[in-house]
Amino acid sequence: MTDKATNPLDDLLAIMARLRDPEHGCPWDLQQDFASVAPYTIEEAHEVADAIERGDPDDLRDELGDLLFQVVFHAQLASEAGWFDFDDVAAAISAKMRRRHPHVFGDLRYASVEAQKQAWDAIKTAERVERGEAPDPSALAGISSGLPAWTRALKLQQRAAAVGFEWPAPEPILDKLAEEVAEVRAEFASDEFSQGVNHARLEDEIGDVLFVMVNLARRANVDFLRALRGANAKFERRFRRMEQLAAQQGRAFAEHDLVEQETLWRQAKADERD
User: Fold this and answer.
1) Where along the chain do its domains lie?
2) For the chain, does the N or the C end have fewer beta carbons within 10 angstroms?
């Protein structure tokens, strides 16, 4: 365990300030701005999720540190711009958590978890009004457009379902998925596709398929991103096995034609089952 007396957070803030020092800092860090750092922030959040998925506590500790560094980096940039600093960030989130949990930090009590969720949304609405934002009566109000697309799709669907806009069972969702896939097929079969002029329509139809897939995962209580990570891992595992099988035959994988590659794929799947 880290010696708490050394105050590692202060040490981290000092390191960040030194990295951005105009005279003695790191040239790479000095070149960065909010926009250039943002992709790394997203990447580190995904790596935290991956460490949790793999159940690796040592890696989780390191990835959480990387993510914390991203927060410190953004706070340093904001401090240099005269906007706010890390203490302001910490104070703001502390105040928000106290404000949004009156049942923990006050005397209020909720009858159920659902009642607490409704109160949470009401508090957020009041906060937006206090900031001077125009009231939005929609059930979809407050869902950030900056969320990852799949997360925003999930939240949109959850809000719609909360007011009754929901299929009663998974079967109609599967029917809708088949309908959307058929529309994608129709676009591929169209003359416009052969002429390369219907890309926007294809993008629209494929987007519909993905939106329905998120809905299907939600109804199945399956984490969409976790399922996709699992599919990625399975594909990589099988593809690497195909490469091994090809090497055992004395040829590079790319030297096999598509029929031969399909045979290797079936063998890789069979090896997994065995």
Assistant:
1) 4-99, 226-273
2) N
Torsion of CA 146, 147, 149, 151, to 10 degrees: -160
pLDDT digits (tens, 9 = 90+) for 132-168: 888 888 889 888 888 889 899 999 999 999 899 999 9
Q: The pTM is what? A: 0.68
Phi, psi (degrees; rounded to nearest 5) at 249: -85, 0
Cβ neighbours of residue 32 under 8 Å, at least 6 residues apart? 73, 77
The string of pLDDT tens digits covering residues 160-214 is 998 999 999 999 999 999 999 999 999 988 877 777 667 888 999 999 999 999 9
User: What token pair was written down for 64?
Assistant: 């959480």
Q: What angle do CA 30, 31, 36 make, to 5 degrees?
A: 120
The alpha carbon of residue 64 and the mean position of all alpha carbons in its chain are separated, in whole angstroms, by 15
How far apart CA 63 and CA 11 sit, in angstroms, is: 18
Write down the CATH number for the domain with range 4-99. 1.10.287.1080
Distance CA 219, CA 174 (A): 11
Tell me the one-letter amino acid at 170: P
Handedness of CA 120, 126, 132, 134 (dihedral sign): positive
